[in-house]
Amino acid sequence: MYHSRQVNNLLANLKGLPEDETESLDRGAKQLDTLMEVIFERYKIDRETPEETILQNWQRIVGPRHASRCAPTKIDASNILLVRVGNSILRRELQFTEDRMMTALRSLPNCGHIEGIRFIAG
To answer: What is the pTM of this model?
Structure first.
């Protein structure tokens, strides 16, 4: 939990610990538009994520026959697309078309970094 310096010093006195006597650092005021640019960049606001791109093109990636029976869930830390599949038969069918799916995925904007596909039960 975050407390002000004054509260932290009061708590330190109660516990018999030394107070924080460092001087505050005035970083100066920043323009709101500059802060907004930093926030938009850091949190990728107003920019389509790879997951959104995949969802919009899902029928094209897996084909109309399978699109309603499976769903992409996320891209993990090792750039593997996790796809939730309802049953083992569909899982096997999708594994046979994995190369075609990877080609379709890598052709999408912001999706060239995807290294593979993992089918998970769900």
So the answer is: 0.65
